[in-house]
Amino acid sequence: MSLFLGIDTSNYTTSAALYDSDSKKMLSVKKLLPVKAGEAGLRQSDAVFHHTKQLPEMFGRLFSEYGGKADITAIGVSFRPRNIDGSYMPCFLCGEGLADCMGAAMGIPVMKTSHQIGHILAALFSADKLSHINEPFIAFHVSGGTTDCLYCEPSENELIKVTEISTSLDLKAGQLIDRAGLMLELRFPCGAELERLSDNASETVKARAVMKNGCCCLSGFENKVRKMLDEGASKETAARFVLDAVFASVYEMTVFAREKYGDIPVIFAGGVMSDRYICARLNEKLDKVYFSAPEFSCDNAAGTALYGYYSYERQV
Questions:
Q1: pTM
Q2: What dihedral angle (degrees, nearest 10) is formed by the CA atoms of 55, 292, 27, 71?
Q3: Which of 153, 183, 211, 282 has its CA 20 to 30 A from that of 100?
Q4: 5 with 72: CB under 8 angstroms?
Q5: What is the pLDDT of residue 1?
Q6: Is beta strand 25-32 parallel, antiparallel or unpaired with respect to 13-20?
Q7: Mean of pLDDT over the chain
Q8: What number is the average pLDDT over the span 185-212?
Q9: Is pLDDT at 113 greater than 80 in this prediction?
Q10: How far apart are CA 78 and CA 238, in angstroms?
Q11: pLDDT at 198 over 80
Q12: Distance (Å, rounded) from C-alpha 275 to C-alpha 88?
């Protein structure tokens, strides 16, 4: 049995995972970082503090669920947000430092990648499309920090090389959802509650995507939600409008990407893409699009465990 440990310490979640390369099974645990009611996120110093507290708990849960001691072959860990120069967030130092210590103590290799690559691999795993790492495909990373449409191709050094096709020029989709959610008196992160609220909408207000050269602009939708509420729209209607705005923007970005790169597969990753309503609308309008289960869309360490596995296999 070959086991690969994954660690991810994002600005939202403390995550750990074990991947069994023989059975192809994944064991994953995670815990959101605590955010005070009414606030939209954490300062990096607070995120580092909470990861330091939560990592021992997550490792205790992971190995308890596994059944005790695990003979780990290699460790995969996210050490930066994206695979571009200058990409850095202090919260990832927590996972990277732990991985380095474990690797040195156990005499096993540590494979480092970006949080974004971890998201893409986790989504591919959940959708049973890991074979796509050997061919070009399009990936979306839609979260509180990114709304990126990416061209992905095989890479000897990075496993997956990503090239940005388009992005959001102002707010990110997750930021729009959370800011609107706080207006609706929901608790951060607001995605799940916003979706439940939207399910009860009795009317809809059309949301038209605002695009510039394939990139989306989302800040106007925040202003529109505020205006809707001031004019007496229901919370449910406002929630549905926000999700329709994200859908419309992602749909137009997908159309733009396929006009440029052809009708190749598209995988959707990131916390925003755990929303059932958005995914269902995209699935209705597009073909060869793939979605992961919510637990593999949101921040998790499954992708970093997979990165550890694939990188180790290449070295061997």
A1: 0.96
A2: -90
A3: 153
A4: yes
A5: 63
A6: antiparallel
A7: 96
A8: 96
A9: yes
A10: 36
A11: yes
A12: 27
- Strand 3-9 to strand 72-80: parallel, antiparallel, or no bridges (unpaired)? parallel
Percent of the chain residues topping a pLDDT of 90: 96
Whose tokens are 């780990």? That residue is 72
Please state the rounded mean pLDDT for residues 142-160. Answer: 96
Q: What stretch of H or E contains 6?
A: strand 3-9
Phi–psi pair at 5, nearest 5 degrees: -90, 135
Whether residue 33 contacts residue 115, with contact meaning beta carbons closer than 8 Å, is answered with no
Q: What is the pLDDT of residues 34-85, one digit of tens each?
A: 998 888 789 999 999 999 999 999 999 999 999 988 999 999 999 999 999 9
Q: How far apart are CA 32 and CA 316, in angstroms?
A: 35
What is the model's pLDDT at position 249?
98
Residues near 302 by beta carbon (within 8 Å), at least 6 away in sequence:
6, 17, 19, 26, 28, 118, 121, 122, 125, 126, 296
Q: DSSP for 100-156?
A: HHHHHHHT--EEEEEHHHHHHHHHHHHTT-GGGGGS-EEEEEESSS-EEEEEEEEET
Backbone torsions φ then ψ of 108, nearest 5 degrees: -125, 155
The token pair at 193 is 């509650």
- In this prediction, residues 276-285 reach a mean pLDDT of 97
- Residue 62's nearest CA partner among 97, 16, 26 is 16
- pLDDT confidence of residue 68: 85
Q: If we measure between CA atoms, which residue out of 178, 180, 179 comes closest to residue 189?
A: 178
| Rounded CA separation 266/290 (Å) | 6
Cα separation, 296 vs 121, in Å, equals 9
* 111 phi and psi angles, rounded to 5 deg: -105, 120
Q: What is the largest CA-CA distance in the chain?
A: 63
Of the candidates 200, 275, 273, the residue with the CA atom closest to the CA atom of residue 238? 200
